[in-house]
Specification:
Rossmann fold; 272 residues; disordered N terminus; 10 strands; alpha/beta
Length: 272
């Protein structure tokens, strides 16, 4: 039996990258299950999770594909692959192959997977189209490429907070990728030559006491140096906004609307 953990078990105080990414896995677990339902993921498939981090969707894929198929997790960071091996062992999942490689040049043989998947990767790279090109190369004709990425346009709090707006703007305007890449996913799949492209959008609500309710100040602290080097806020302004937002989120009536998680998937034609 595969063990399930809640986001609260692993988020902590945003103490490590592994903890944050494990919490992210739990946060978007239901959406991943729904995506694979819509693709009709079958027992015996060969699947790849790009930039899997400390778990990604590897446990979900392994559970659905079974012993007759195969699951590969790819990440450039050996520490993440070590964390993934530990996470899988803790959940009683065996048989997953973990591979170190770059997402735009994996070194894996082409046309070798029935499904190639990524989640929350494309918003963190300068040229997401290059990642999609590699994913299309790796999937066999008739197989699927599946993308899950955020559009932060909906990420806000209620009641409104000017300090929230300042922090969110500082975080998103200094990132290297596109924080609104989610809405572009169907177009990227079509441009890459895929057919039968479909799209869905998921969003959620984070209430006081839930782990991701405080995610904005957590991420701002994580990327503090980058924001101060490139952003619109001085250090005293940043610290003042952080105090205001933390106080605002501590109120029992403050809710947070999550980012939109766009899901897009398409099939590789037999001639491309």
């Amino acid at each position: 039996m595969i063990m399930r953990r809640t986001a609260g078990d692993v988020l902590g105080a945003c103490s490590t990258a592994e903890a944050r990414l494990l919490a992210q896995c739990e946060l978007h677990r239901m959406e991943a299950e729904l995506l694979f339902d819509r693709i009709c993921l079958e027992c015996g498939w060969h699947a790849l999770d790009m930039c899997c981090g400390p778990l990604g969707v590897l446990d979900i894929l392994a559970e659905r594909i079974g012993q007759s198929g195969s699951v590969v997790g790819l990440d450039r960071d050996p520490r993440m692959l070590e964390a993934a091996a530990l996470s899988l062992a803790q959940r009683g999942v065996s048989g997953v192959q973990l591979v170190q490689g770059e997402v735009t040049a994996t070194g894996l043989p082409g046309a070798s997977f029935d499904l190639v998947h990524e989640r929350l990767l494309l918003g963190d790279v300068v040229c997401p189209e290059n990642v999609v090109t590699e994913m299309v190369r790796l999937v066999r004709p008739g197989g699927f490429v599946a993308l899950q990425d955020a559009d932060v346009i909906s990420w806000t709090c209620e009641p409104a907070s000017p300090a929230w707006d300042h922090l969110a703007n500082a975080l998103t305007t200094t990132c290297i990728g596109d924080p609104h890449v989610g809405r572009r996913l169907p177009g990227m799949l079509r441009a890459a030559g895929l057919v039968d492209v479909e799209v869905d959008v998921q969003a959620g609500l984070w209430r006081p006491g839930e782990p991701h309710h405080n995610l904005l100040p957590c991420l701002v602290n994580l990327h503090r140096d980058r924001i101060l080097a490139n952003g619109p806020l001085t250090e005293p302004e940043l610290d003042a906004c952080l105090r205001d937002v933390e106080d605002h989120l501590a109120r029992p009536d403050t809710i947070v609307l999550s980012w939109m998680l766009f899901q897009a998937w398409g099939r590789k034609p037999f001639t491309i």
